[in-house]
Design a protein that fits this description.
Helix content of chain A: under 10%
Largest sheet of chain B: 6 strands, mixed
Strand content of chain B: over 45%
Distance between the termini of chain A: 39 Å
Structural class of chain A: mainly beta
Distance between the termini of chain B: 41 Å
Largest interface: A-B, 20 and 20 residues
Helix content of chain B: under 10%
Shape of chain A: globular
Oligomer: heterodimer
Order of helices and strands of chain A: EEEEEEEEEEE
Number of strands of chain B: 11
């Protein structure tokens, strides 16, 4: 069966520090991968999605970036965090051909 | 891009009553409409979905309706129970890219 792992689960970072969140999917190949952000009490904002290795589409201009160095690995990064980057970050995947979007357990980021 | 609006933002219902959440979407090319439930501090999980070639779908106490002409779809929960309390998100999908509504916080009063 397919599983998705996301880490770290929580982190507290100072403004201006770098960020790296990692996500891996097991049990499937060539999935579409997504990064969403959820601000406190808000909806799910699509940040990036990827249909294949090295292929990244950005939905919202910001100081974040994403990379897909391997088929089932998706990384969210920032060189310098802002206060507004605080939120709940969710990695997700979907099998090509459509169907359910599966979310990882999420990473709660607090920028101080 | 796709824009999904969701109403109401909060909904309080008496246990046993029905709850209805409505969403509209902007892009007529959207062809897949899932609903997700998110409990506090947890990840969203799919509860029901509908495709654009279907007008209605039901799964026990949950049903979803889709009006493609009007570009709106709704979630209906009947006989609500305390465990139905959560945040519910609708979404619309084009080419496997899901755009979500802002969410509805449902509270079921015992």
């Amino acid at each position: 069966s397919q599983t998705i792992h996301q880490w770290p689960a929580t982190l507290v970072q100072p403004v201006g520090s770098p960020l790296s969140l990692e996500c891996t999917v097991e049990g499937t190949s060539n999935p579409n991968l997504y990064w969403y952000r959820q601000a406190a009490g808000r909806g799910l904002q699509l940040l990036f999605y990827s249909v294949g290795i090295g292929q990244i589409s950005s939905e919202v201009p910001q100081n974040l970036s994403a990379s897909r160095p391997q088929d089932r690995q998706f990384i969210l990064s920032s060189k310098k965090l802002l206060l507004s980057d605080s939120g709940f970050y969710l990695c997700a995947w979907i099998i090509k051909g459509g169907g359910e979007l599966f979310f990882g357990e999420g990473s709660r980021l607090t920028v101080l | 891009g796709e824009n999904v609006e969701q109403h109401p933002s909060t909904l309080s219902v008496q246990e046993g009553d029905s709850a209805v959440i409505k969403c509209t979407y902007s892009d007529s090319a959207s062809n897949y409409f899932p609903w997700y439930k998110q409990e506090l501090g947890k990840r969203p999980q799919l509860i029901i979905d509908i495709r654009s070639n279907v007008g209605e779908k039901k799964d026990q106490r949950i049903a979803v309706t889709l009006n493609k002409t009007a570009k709106h779809f709704s979630l209906h929960i009947t006989e609500t129970q305390p465990e139905d309390s959560a945040v519910y998100f609708c979404a619309a999908s084009i080419d496997y890219k899901l755009s979500f509504g802002a969410g509805t916080t449902v509270t079921v009063r015992a």
